[in-house]
Amino acid sequence: MIENDIVEGALAEEAQVPSTNEFAAHHRINPATAAKGINRLVDEGILYKKRGIGMFVSTGARTALLDKRRAQFATTYLEPMLAEARKLGISPAEVSSMITGSDRATSTNGRQARR
Length: 115
What we know:
By secondary structure, the protein is mainly α. The chain has five helices and two strands, in the order αααββαα.
């Protein structure tokens, strides 16, 4: 949730994030579980701690998260899609046309697609 808030701009860089206890109470999870998630974000450099004040979003956190998610997007969605396209004999150009919508009216064999 914190990562999503940073990516979507709901949590700006240098903004304070809810405390571990607030986060745990809000989501009705064990505080140790909340702390583990927040500590993971600290380890990744997304959050940092100001002693005695709380946790804050690091400068550059949004860019780092976008880079990470773009890489995950390629691995999770694009690579399996392209592998399936190869199995079906769909060329990269056809995949590109499907994505951009320039090939919506026809199927891969040139016949009118059903709507």
